[in-house]
Specification:
The protein is α+β, with helices and mostly antiparallel strands and 190 residues long. The chain has a domain of 64 residues. Helix content is 38%, strand content 23%. It has 6 helices and 7 strands; from the N terminus they run H-H-E-H-H-H-E-E-H-E-E-E-E. The protein is elongated and about 60 Å long.
């Protein structure tokens, strides 16, 4: 069991896993290109792990925190830059946070931030604490992983290209991308 990861609805995991394993944007990749996509997502979004807002579910607290987090993403998608400009303008209006627009903007921010997750992660509330929002590892990622799983990195076949999940005897997880047998760490949870 990964520390901090509790139960997550299996339907949610099944819905997100294909996206996670195809690079997060709905693109199809063959086995050879998947490893490169894992590495790209790590380089760009490696800070996206853990909580960004906790102990509140109020829109006036969540929207500014989510806006700040989205502004920190590099590179930021053009559609997300537009979304940020629109939300920042609406936040200047009195009673914005009590409006329906705030509710819709919050939903849009959830969707936008989910596009910046690392492989195996999702953006949303923590499974054990509904008021803790951030980037969390899907509980069943290790079980549903479609690359190779090893207990020791020496078990990776010579010349292998693709995703490798190293699960040690202490429950630590490390995701690697392999290119012709060379491993590059994407993320680790120890």
């Amino acid at each position: 069991m990964v520390a901090g990861v509790e139960n997550l609805d299996a339907e949610i995991v099944r819905a997100r896993l294909p996206k996670l394993l195809t690079g997060g944007r709905g693109r199809e990749h063959d086995e050879g290109s998947r490893g490169g996509d894992y590495q790209m997502k790590c380089n760009n979004y490696s800070q996206n792990m853990g909580s960004i807002s906790c102990a509140t579910m109020r829109e006036e607290d969540l929207i500014p925190a989510f806006v700040s987090c989205l502004e920190d993403q590099k590179p930021l998608h053009r559609s997300d830059r537009k979304l940020l400009r629109e939300i920042n303008a609406r936040m200047e209006v009195e009673d914005y946070f009590e409006s329906e627009e705030a509710t819709y903007d919050l939903e849009s921010l959830f969707d936008a931030l989910n596009d910046y997750t690392m492989p195996g992660f999702y953006f949303g509330s923590h499974p054990g604490d509904g008021s803790d929002y951030g980037f969390w590892l899907d509980e069943s990622f290790a079980e549903d992983f479609d690359g190779i799983k090893v207990e020791n990195t020496s078990e990776v076949p010579r010349g292998y290209t693709g995703a490798v999940l190293h699960c040690n005897d202490h429950g630590n997880l490390t995701l690697y991308t392999a290119s012709r047998g060379r491993l590059h760490e994407v993320w680790a949870i120890v």
